[in-house]
Structures are given as C-alpha cells and as structure tokens.
Design a protein that fits this description.
The structure is a single chain. The protein contains 14 helices and 19 strands. By secondary structure, the chain is an alpha+beta fold. It folds into 3 domains: 219 residues, HUPs (Rossmann fold, 3-Layer(aba) Sandwich), CATH 3.40.50; 81 residues, Chorismate Mutase Domain, subunit A, CATH 1.20.59; 104 residues, no CATH class. It has a 6-stranded mixed beta sheet, sandwiched between helices. A hairpin with a 2-residue loop joins β17 and β18. It is elongated and about 90 Å long. The two termini are 52 Å apart. It holds the Pfam family TilS_C.
Length: 442
C-alpha cells in the first residue's frame, strides 16, 4: 500500500478531531469515488476508534433513468460495511441552472436530517476546491465567493464538515484502487455543457500540464481569501454593533439598523456590513445591483424608499433600515368580529391580539386602516389617526397592518402605542403580538 493511502486515515481523524463528541456523523453518500472512499475510511476507523454512530444518506434526484439503480448499489456497499443507509428522494425544481437546483434540493435534504449536535460529512477534496475558486472567479465573485467551500458551516440543527479538503483526487483514487472499491460513474460528470465539467476536463488538464502545482496553489489562494473574509466579517461585526441600537419599535420583532451609524462609514464598509447582515436573510445581489442600496440611503428624508432583494425587502423609516420578508409582504386579510374578547384573537397572517383588564362592552370588531379614521382622546378631543401615528413615528410599513379596535364606528384603541392602546386611567389594554417566523416570516 502506498504511503499516501496509509496516511489517509490518520489525516482524516486529525481533521475530524473537533467533531468527535457529536451525537452522530451522517455521511453524504452519492456512491461516487469520493464519498465511497470517505465512507470506507470511516467504517474501518470505527472498528478501532471511538467514533460517533455512522449513518449514510443517499439523495435520489430522479434526474436520470440510470440513477434509479444507484440506491441499490449504495445499499449493498453500506450493508457490506455495516453502516445504516437512508435514501431520500427529492424533487428538483425547474430553473435556469439544473446544477444549482439539484444542489439546493440535495442540501435541503441534508438540512432535514442533521439535528442538534450532529454532523453531516461531505467528500469534497482539494481539487474540488480549486475548481470552485476558478468557477467563481469566472463569475466575478468577491472575497466571500473566492474563499471557496468552507471546511465547516452550520447546517440544519448541526454542522456540515468537509474533512477531505486537504486531500487530492489522486490520493482518493489510489486509496480506492488499493482497497478494491467499487463506485458509481455518473454519466452527467462527462457532460461538458455543465461549467464545472468543462473546467475539470478541458481547462484544468491544460493548466496542470503547464503548472503542475496549479491545484495546490489555487486551493492555497482560497485559504488566504477565507482568512481575508474572516477579517472582513470581524470588521462587519464591529460596524454592525454601532448600528444595532434600540428602537421604540423593537416589539415588532423585525431586524433593523440605525442608518446614521452606517452613513458614517465608507461606501466599502457600508456594503461589507450590510452584506454580513443580509447574508443569512437573503441571497445577496451581484455587485452591479447594489445601486438599490445607494437609492435607499440617499433618498429624501420624507421619501419611502424600498430596496427589493431576492427574499425580502429593505425599508427605510424613522432613521432606520428594516428587513421585511414572508408574511410582512403579504396583504392583511379582514379580521371582523371579536366574539369573545376575553380570549386572544388570532388575526389571519397578522399575529395575535389580546385584551387585558376591564374589557370594554361589545360588540367589538377588528379593522385595518382605510384612511380618515378619527379617535377621541380626552382631554384632547377628536384627533385624526394619521396625525397620531405621525406623532409617534410609526413606520409606514406598519400602519396598514396595525389592528384597530372598533365598537360600531367608534375607534377605541390602537395596540402597543402609548396613550392609544387602552381605556382611560389604564382600566384596560390592547396588545398586538406581530407575526413571527413561525407564522410565515423568513
């Protein structure tokens, strides 16, 4: 057996040392060369090392007829190694990029099976990292994209870990040959219409013929860029800490930032901080489409600018930026009567209302703003609701969602707003719990 094949188990164990206390290791098992080697290595290490319980996960995309035989192959390999196998069938959504759609479906399945304190192990290696760097470079990626695939990242309730990123494809092939492993050859891997396959079969052979260490040096560049991205993330945290000030409307439960704190930064630092803040919430725009941020930031004080992104919208109101997504972007549905005000009133797509204290006589109704509403405020008399909301600085995007309590045509209360939310002398109080993530927000 070659020296590299002998070293492989010890190198793998070293890379997985931080994860030895996980409650389970799931292995993403396509049946191809890379994942077959990873599975074989771990199954044999488990005989002599104290490892978390191993299971294999095979995702069946249903994109090729030949793939129907792959679950049986994977099952036979797992049976021989004594590793339980879970086969997950997914629906790949049609779209412009079949590669991306299949990946999204696959990682959605991985997310579902990875519970708290569990790890999903995937078999990407150093050559894959170099391909990723060049592929993203050709697409104009920034530092984050050129960092390549991270060695670890959160996934589901646990983590995704790539323990082979310092191993070459040649080393995996040598191990597979010396251990007489059998694996699936996916015909689509030869289809050079796919960009990654074109790079693998056309571009990299030419590069390595001229520069034999091209794969290693490109993977090293990805590591340098990953370190640079870490420094940018640290800077973003510092800048965001200055902008993450309290708001009178924190009860909305919406992410928000103070605009003035961001405006003090250079344009590059603004984009860095915002990218860091938005990244867990939405797919980020390409660099050419950041003009939406400029328009939002520079709009007149009395304007109501909106920056529409892939998975939500950034609004500006009250000197702050607000992130809205999911149910916040859907129109509210009529609420109607409140038959028993002693019980909480669920509002369709708009949270929950509760009345506490000496509940006013009914019948009571929940309505939303239509314009022209008047509210009686002793001793101020009758006041226009729009003016009252202006006085309290209520963001425009909230006003149409505020549930209003009526008795007949009399507006009794507006929830959560001081002086408007209840009866005289505090005899009763109307409280609104806006919709949260569990009620359809991203």
């Amino acid at each position: 057996m070659s020296q590299s094949a002998i070293d492989l188990p010890s190198r793998l164990l070293l890379n997985l040392k931080p994860w030895r206390n996980a409650t389970a290791w799931h292995i993403a098992f396509s049946g191809g060369l890379d994942s077959t080697v990873l599975l074989h290595l771990l199954a044999h290490l488990a005989k002599t090392e104290s490892l978390p319980p191993l299971t294999a996960i095979h995702v069946h995309h249903g994109l090729q007829a030949v793939a129907d035989a792959w679950p049986d192959h994977c099952r036979s390999v797992c049976d021989a190694l004594g590793v339980p196998l879970q086969v997950v069938r997914v629906q790949v959504q049609p779209g412009a990029s079949l590669e991306r759609a299949a990946r999204d479906a696959r990682y959605g399945a991985f997310m579902d099976v990875t519970q708290a304190n569990q790890v999903l192990l995937t078999a990407q290696h150093r050559d894959d990292q170099a391909e990723t760097l060049l592929f993203r470079l050709l697409r104009g990626a920034g530092v984050r994209g050129l960092s390549g695939m991270p060695r670890r990242r959160p996934l589901g309730g646990g983590h995704l870990v790539r323990p082979l990123l310092d191993i070459t494809r040649t080393e995996l092939e040598t191990y597979a040959s010396e251990n007489h492993l059998n694996w699936i050859e996916d015909p689509s891997n030869q289809d050079r219409q796919f960009s990654r396959n074109y790079l693998r079969h056309q571009v990299f052979p030419a590069l390595t013929a001229r520069w034999p260490q091209a794969m290693a040096t490109m993977a090293r560049s990805a590591a340098h860029l990953s370190e640079a991205q870490g420094l940018l993330d640290d800077l973003a945290q510092i800048d965001l800490s200055q902008a993450s000030t309290p708001s009178d409307f924190d009860w909305l439960g919406l992410p928000s930032l103070e605009l003035a704190a961001l405006e003090k930064l250079s344009v590059a630092r603004q984009r860095n901080a915002l990218s860091h803040w938005l990244e867990p919430r939405t797919r980020l725009p390409e660099s050419d489409h950041w003009s939406g941020w400029d328009s939002l930031r520079d709009a007149a004080v009395d304007a109501r600018p909106i920056w529409r992104l892939a998975d939500g919208e950034l609004h500006r109101a009250g000197g702050r930026l607000w992130w809205l997504s999911g149910g916040w972007l859907s129109p509210v549905l009529a609420a109607g009567e409140w038959p028993d005000p002693a019980l909480p009133r669920a509002l369709p797509g708009n949270g929950v209302l509760t009345l506490t204290g000496q509940i006013p006589d009914g019948p009571l109704q929940i309505r939303y703003r239509e314009g022209g509403e008047i509210m009686e405020l002793p001793p101020r008399g009758h006041r226009d609701l729009k003016r009252l909301l202006n006085e309290r600085g209520v963001p425009q995007f909230v006003r149409g969602r505020l549930p209003l309590l009526f008795k007949g045509e009399q507006l009794l209360a507006v929830p959560n707003l001081q002086g408007l939310e209840g009866g005289a002398a505090g005899s009763w109080n109307l409280h609104w719990q806006p919709p949260n993530e569990d009620q359809g927000l991203s």
